[in-house]
Amino acid sequence: MFDALGNLIAYRLLGLSAQGQWGPALQFFIADSVKIFVLLVVVIYVMGLLRALLSPERVRSYVRGRPAWLARLLAIALGAVTPFCSCSSVPLFIGFVEAGIPLGVTFSFLIASPMINEVAVVILAGVLGWRITALYVLAGLVVAYLGGVVMERFRPQRWVEPYVWEIHMGETPLAAGPQGLLERHHFALHEVRQIVGRIWRWVLLGIGVGALFHGLVPEAWVSRYLGDASNPLTVPAAVLLGIPLYSNATGVIPVAEAMLAKGVAVGTTLAFMMSIAALSLPEMLILRRVIRWPALALFAAVLAVAFSLVGWGFNLIT
User: Fold this and answer.
1) 199-246 pLDDT, tens digit each
2) Do the domain assignments include residue 172?
Protein backbone atom coordinates (compact mmCIF):
# COMPACT_ATOMS: atom_id res chain seq x y z
CA MET A 1 0.00 0.00 0.00
CA PHE A 2 2.73 2.46 0.97
CA ASP A 3 4.92 1.50 -1.99
CA ALA A 4 1.91 1.88 -4.28
CA LEU A 5 1.37 5.42 -2.99
CA GLY A 6 5.03 6.23 -3.61
CA ASN A 7 4.82 4.79 -7.12
CA LEU A 8 1.66 6.78 -7.87
CA ILE A 9 3.15 10.14 -6.84
CA ALA A 10 6.73 9.69 -8.05
CA TYR A 11 6.19 7.85 -11.32
CA ARG A 12 2.63 8.55 -12.49
CA LEU A 13 1.83 12.03 -11.18
CA LEU A 14 5.32 13.54 -11.42
CA GLY A 15 6.44 11.43 -14.36
CA LEU A 16 9.85 10.53 -12.94
CA SER A 17 11.64 7.47 -14.29
CA ALA A 18 11.96 4.34 -12.18
CA GLN A 19 15.32 3.71 -13.89
CA GLY A 20 16.75 7.12 -12.99
CA GLN A 21 18.14 8.42 -9.71
CA TRP A 22 15.56 10.91 -8.46
CA GLY A 23 12.51 8.72 -9.19
CA PRO A 24 13.50 5.87 -6.84
CA ALA A 25 14.75 8.41 -4.27
CA LEU A 26 11.42 10.27 -4.19
CA GLN A 27 9.42 7.03 -4.23
CA PHE A 28 11.43 5.79 -1.23
CA PHE A 29 10.93 9.08 0.64
CA ILE A 30 7.15 9.16 0.12
CA ALA A 31 6.52 5.49 0.89
CA ASP A 32 8.72 5.42 3.99
CA SER A 33 7.44 8.76 5.32
CA VAL A 34 3.81 7.62 5.24
CA LYS A 35 4.60 4.14 6.56
CA ILE A 36 6.80 5.27 9.44
CA PHE A 37 4.54 8.11 10.61
CA VAL A 38 1.44 5.88 10.53
CA LEU A 39 3.28 3.28 12.59
CA LEU A 40 4.61 6.00 14.91
CA VAL A 41 1.19 7.40 15.72
CA VAL A 42 -0.46 4.00 16.21
CA VAL A 43 2.29 2.46 18.32
CA ILE A 44 2.87 5.55 20.50
CA TYR A 45 -0.87 5.85 21.15
CA VAL A 46 -1.23 2.18 22.13
CA MET A 47 1.84 2.27 24.33
CA GLY A 48 0.66 5.57 25.83
CA LEU A 49 -2.45 3.79 27.09
CA LEU A 50 -0.24 1.22 28.79
CA ARG A 51 2.35 3.73 29.99
CA ALA A 52 -0.07 5.98 31.86
CA LEU A 53 1.30 4.77 35.20
CA LEU A 54 4.97 4.98 34.18
CA SER A 55 7.04 8.08 34.93
CA PRO A 56 10.74 8.82 35.34
CA GLU A 57 10.21 8.86 39.10
CA ARG A 58 8.75 5.37 38.98
CA VAL A 59 11.60 4.17 36.78
CA ARG A 60 14.03 5.39 39.44
CA SER A 61 11.95 3.84 42.22
CA TYR A 62 11.79 0.41 40.56
CA VAL A 63 15.58 0.20 40.26
CA ARG A 64 16.63 1.62 43.64
CA GLY A 65 17.58 -0.82 46.39
CA ARG A 66 17.73 -3.95 44.21
CA PRO A 67 20.68 -6.40 44.01
CA ALA A 68 23.19 -5.28 41.38
CA TRP A 69 22.35 -7.95 38.80
CA LEU A 70 18.61 -7.47 39.23
CA ALA A 71 18.91 -3.68 39.22
CA ARG A 72 20.85 -3.89 35.96
CA LEU A 73 18.24 -6.12 34.33
CA LEU A 74 15.45 -3.84 35.55
CA ALA A 75 17.30 -0.75 34.32
CA ILE A 76 17.74 -2.30 30.87
CA ALA A 77 14.13 -3.48 30.72
CA LEU A 78 12.83 -0.08 31.81
CA GLY A 79 15.18 1.64 29.37
CA ALA A 80 13.76 -0.51 26.58
CA VAL A 81 10.15 0.52 27.29
CA THR A 82 10.63 4.20 28.09
CA PRO A 83 10.49 6.82 25.32
CA PHE A 84 13.75 8.58 26.13
CA CYS A 85 16.23 9.46 23.40
CA SER A 86 19.93 9.62 24.23
CA CYS A 87 19.82 13.30 25.21
CA SER A 88 16.62 13.15 27.26
CA SER A 89 18.00 10.12 29.14
CA VAL A 90 20.81 12.21 30.61
CA PRO A 91 18.66 14.16 33.14
CA LEU A 92 17.42 10.84 34.49
CA PHE A 93 21.07 9.86 34.90
CA ILE A 94 21.35 12.52 37.60
CA GLY A 95 18.26 11.18 39.34
CA PHE A 96 19.70 7.67 39.36
CA VAL A 97 22.98 8.91 40.83
CA GLU A 98 21.18 10.92 43.51
CA ALA A 99 19.08 7.90 44.42
CA GLY A 100 22.20 5.85 45.18
CA ILE A 101 21.85 3.49 42.21
CA PRO A 102 25.28 2.10 41.18
CA LEU A 103 26.80 3.93 38.24
CA GLY A 104 27.28 0.71 36.29
CA VAL A 105 23.53 0.12 36.46
CA THR A 106 22.90 3.73 35.48
CA PHE A 107 25.15 3.39 32.43
CA SER A 108 23.26 0.23 31.41
CA PHE A 109 20.05 2.28 31.42
CA LEU A 110 21.75 5.09 29.52
CA ILE A 111 22.76 2.64 26.77
CA ALA A 112 19.48 0.72 26.55
CA SER A 113 17.08 3.67 26.66
CA PRO A 114 17.94 5.33 23.33
CA MET A 115 18.88 2.10 21.52
CA ILE A 116 15.82 -0.03 22.23
CA ASN A 117 12.21 1.00 22.61
CA GLU A 118 8.93 -0.53 21.57
CA VAL A 119 8.23 2.14 18.94
CA ALA A 120 11.54 1.54 17.18
CA VAL A 121 11.10 -2.24 17.44
CA VAL A 122 7.68 -2.23 15.78
CA ILE A 123 8.76 0.16 13.03
CA LEU A 124 12.02 -1.73 12.51
CA ALA A 125 10.08 -4.98 12.13
CA GLY A 126 7.62 -3.34 9.72
CA VAL A 127 10.40 -1.91 7.56
CA LEU A 128 13.22 -4.45 7.79
CA GLY A 129 11.53 -7.61 9.05
CA TRP A 130 11.61 -9.49 12.33
CA ARG A 131 14.95 -11.18 11.67
CA ILE A 132 16.90 -7.91 11.57
CA THR A 133 14.81 -6.59 14.46
CA ALA A 134 15.58 -9.60 16.66
CA LEU A 135 19.30 -9.28 15.90
CA TYR A 136 19.26 -5.57 16.73
CA VAL A 137 17.34 -6.00 20.01
CA LEU A 138 19.47 -8.95 21.14
CA ALA A 139 22.68 -7.08 20.40
CA GLY A 140 21.37 -3.96 22.16
CA LEU A 141 20.46 -5.88 25.32
CA VAL A 142 23.86 -7.58 25.47
CA VAL A 143 25.73 -4.32 24.86
CA ALA A 144 23.68 -2.52 27.54
CA TYR A 145 24.34 -5.22 30.13
CA LEU A 146 28.04 -5.81 29.45
CA GLY A 147 28.72 -2.12 28.81
CA GLY A 148 27.42 -1.25 32.27
CA VAL A 149 29.50 -4.06 33.82
CA VAL A 150 32.68 -2.83 32.12
CA MET A 151 32.02 0.78 33.13
CA GLU A 152 31.53 -0.28 36.76
CA ARG A 153 34.93 -2.05 36.78
CA PHE A 154 36.65 1.30 36.21
CA ARG A 155 34.96 2.95 39.25
CA PRO A 156 33.43 5.81 37.24
CA GLN A 157 32.03 7.47 40.38
CA ARG A 158 35.38 9.23 40.81
CA TRP A 159 34.72 11.10 37.55
CA VAL A 160 31.21 12.32 38.35
CA GLU A 161 31.05 16.11 38.65
CA PRO A 162 30.93 17.17 42.34
CA TYR A 163 27.68 19.11 41.98
CA VAL A 164 25.83 15.90 41.03
CA TRP A 165 26.59 14.36 44.43
CA GLU A 166 25.34 17.52 46.11
CA ILE A 167 21.91 17.40 44.46
CA HIS A 168 19.21 16.49 46.94
CA MET A 169 16.07 15.90 44.99
CA GLY A 170 14.29 14.34 47.94
CA GLU A 171 11.56 11.82 47.66
CA THR A 172 9.61 12.82 44.60
CA PRO A 173 5.95 11.89 45.01
CA LEU A 174 5.06 9.17 42.56
CA ALA A 175 2.30 10.24 40.26
CA ALA A 176 -0.75 8.05 40.42
CA GLY A 177 -1.25 8.47 36.70
CA PRO A 178 -4.47 8.67 34.72
CA GLN A 179 -7.00 6.23 36.15
CA GLY A 180 -10.02 6.21 33.83
CA LEU A 181 -10.17 5.16 30.18
CA LEU A 182 -10.89 8.71 29.01
CA GLU A 183 -7.94 10.07 30.99
CA ARG A 184 -5.69 7.38 29.53
CA HIS A 185 -6.95 8.30 26.05
CA HIS A 186 -6.02 11.95 26.61
CA PHE A 187 -2.68 10.89 28.07
CA ALA A 188 -1.99 8.70 25.01
CA LEU A 189 -2.86 11.57 22.66
CA HIS A 190 -0.52 13.81 24.62
CA GLU A 191 2.22 11.18 24.25
CA VAL A 192 1.66 11.12 20.49
CA ARG A 193 1.83 14.92 20.21
CA GLN A 194 4.85 15.18 22.50
CA ILE A 195 6.96 12.35 21.08
CA VAL A 196 6.10 12.88 17.40
CA GLY A 197 6.56 16.62 17.90
CA ARG A 198 10.01 15.99 19.35
CA ILE A 199 11.32 13.54 16.74
CA TRP A 200 9.52 14.25 13.45
CA ARG A 201 12.36 16.40 12.11
CA TRP A 202 14.90 13.67 12.82
CA VAL A 203 12.64 11.03 11.27
CA LEU A 204 12.23 13.09 8.09
CA LEU A 205 15.96 13.77 8.05
CA GLY A 206 16.65 10.06 8.37
CA ILE A 207 14.18 9.25 5.60
CA GLY A 208 15.71 11.96 3.41
CA VAL A 209 19.22 10.61 3.92
CA GLY A 210 17.98 7.10 3.26
CA ALA A 211 16.20 8.24 0.10
CA LEU A 212 19.32 9.98 -1.24
CA PHE A 213 21.40 6.95 -0.39
CA HIS A 214 18.83 4.68 -2.05
CA GLY A 215 18.54 6.67 -5.27
CA LEU A 216 21.81 8.49 -5.80
CA VAL A 217 24.63 6.37 -4.34
CA PRO A 218 25.86 3.85 -6.92
CA GLU A 219 25.79 0.21 -5.90
CA ALA A 220 29.37 -0.19 -7.14
CA TRP A 221 30.56 2.44 -4.64
CA VAL A 222 28.66 0.79 -1.79
CA SER A 223 30.00 -2.63 -2.68
CA ARG A 224 33.54 -1.31 -2.81
CA TYR A 225 33.61 0.66 0.45
CA LEU A 226 30.84 -0.72 2.67
CA GLY A 227 29.55 -3.95 1.17
CA ASP A 228 32.60 -6.13 1.74
CA ALA A 229 31.83 -7.99 4.97
CA SER A 230 35.25 -9.64 4.85
CA ASN A 231 36.97 -6.26 5.27
CA PRO A 232 37.24 -5.71 9.05
CA LEU A 233 37.65 -1.95 8.64
CA THR A 234 34.12 -1.38 7.30
CA VAL A 235 32.51 -1.96 10.71
CA PRO A 236 34.57 0.54 12.78
CA ALA A 237 34.27 2.96 9.86
CA ALA A 238 30.46 2.69 10.12
CA VAL A 239 30.65 3.26 13.90
CA LEU A 240 32.80 6.38 13.43
CA LEU A 241 30.48 7.62 10.69
CA GLY A 242 27.50 7.41 13.05
CA ILE A 243 29.03 9.40 15.94
CA PRO A 244 28.63 12.93 14.47
CA LEU A 245 25.06 12.16 13.41
CA TYR A 246 22.15 12.55 15.81
CA SER A 247 18.89 10.68 15.63
CA ASN A 248 16.93 8.18 17.66
CA ALA A 249 16.45 4.52 16.82
CA THR A 250 13.35 5.39 14.80
CA GLY A 251 14.98 8.05 12.66
CA VAL A 252 17.91 5.87 11.63
CA ILE A 253 15.74 2.98 10.38
CA PRO A 254 15.20 4.42 6.85
CA VAL A 255 18.95 4.90 6.45
CA ALA A 256 19.54 1.29 7.52
CA GLU A 257 16.86 0.14 5.08
CA ALA A 258 18.61 1.92 2.22
CA MET A 259 22.00 0.54 3.26
CA LEU A 260 20.73 -3.03 3.31
CA ALA A 261 19.03 -2.54 -0.07
CA LYS A 262 22.39 -1.47 -1.51
CA GLY A 263 24.10 -4.58 -0.22
CA VAL A 264 25.72 -3.32 2.99
CA ALA A 265 26.30 -6.25 5.36
CA VAL A 266 23.86 -6.77 8.25
CA GLY A 267 26.54 -6.41 10.94
CA THR A 268 27.90 -3.19 9.44
CA THR A 269 24.38 -1.76 9.29
CA LEU A 270 23.60 -2.74 12.89
CA ALA A 271 26.84 -1.15 14.12
CA PHE A 272 25.96 2.05 12.27
CA MET A 273 22.45 2.13 13.77
CA MET A 274 23.73 1.60 17.30
CA SER A 275 26.39 4.28 16.94
CA ILE A 276 23.83 6.90 15.88
CA ALA A 277 21.30 5.92 18.56
CA ALA A 278 23.59 5.65 21.59
CA LEU A 279 26.92 7.28 20.76
CA SER A 280 25.94 10.57 19.19
CA LEU A 281 27.97 13.76 19.60
CA PRO A 282 25.04 15.76 21.13
CA GLU A 283 24.63 13.10 23.82
CA MET A 284 28.35 13.26 24.60
CA LEU A 285 28.18 17.04 24.99
CA ILE A 286 25.21 16.83 27.36
CA LEU A 287 26.72 13.95 29.31
CA ARG A 288 29.89 16.01 29.79
CA ARG A 289 27.90 18.24 32.14
CA VAL A 290 27.51 15.25 34.46
CA ILE A 291 30.78 13.30 34.14
CA ARG A 292 34.35 14.35 33.44
CA TRP A 293 36.34 13.67 30.30
CA PRO A 294 37.98 10.39 31.45
CA ALA A 295 34.56 8.80 32.09
CA LEU A 296 33.20 10.24 28.87
CA ALA A 297 36.12 8.86 26.86
CA LEU A 298 35.76 5.49 28.57
CA PHE A 299 32.02 5.40 27.87
CA ALA A 300 32.57 6.23 24.19
CA ALA A 301 35.40 3.70 23.87
CA VAL A 302 33.41 0.89 25.51
CA LEU A 303 30.45 1.48 23.19
CA ALA A 304 32.60 1.86 20.07
CA VAL A 305 34.36 -1.43 20.79
CA ALA A 306 31.07 -3.17 21.66
CA PHE A 307 29.35 -1.95 18.48
CA SER A 308 32.34 -3.03 16.38
CA LEU A 309 32.28 -6.50 17.98
CA VAL A 310 28.55 -6.74 17.27
CA GLY A 311 29.12 -5.76 13.65
CA TRP A 312 31.97 -8.21 13.12
CA GLY A 313 30.05 -11.00 14.82
CA PHE A 314 26.89 -10.59 12.77
CA ASN A 315 28.88 -10.22 9.55
CA LEU A 316 30.39 -13.63 10.27
CA ILE A 317 27.10 -15.43 10.96
CA THR A 318 24.79 -13.73 8.43
Assistant:
1) 677 678 767 876 776 677 676 666 666 777 788 889 998 888 777 665
2) no
Q: Look at residue 66 and tell me if it is in a domain.
A: yes
Q: Are 188 and 42 in contact (CB under 8 A)?
A: no
CA dihedral 178, 184, 187, 193 (to 10 degrees): 170
Strand partners, 291: 160
Residue 174 placed within a domain: no
In terms of residue numbers, what domain contains 228?
2-167+179-317
The span from the CA of 279 to the CA of 299, in Å, is 9
Distance in angstroms between the alpha carbons of the first and the last residue of the chain: 30
pTM above 0.85, yes or no: no
Q: How far is CA 240 from the centre of its chain?
A: 16
Domain count, the chain: 1
* 3 state DSSP class of 291: strand
Q: How far apart are CA 252 and CA 275, in angstroms?
A: 10
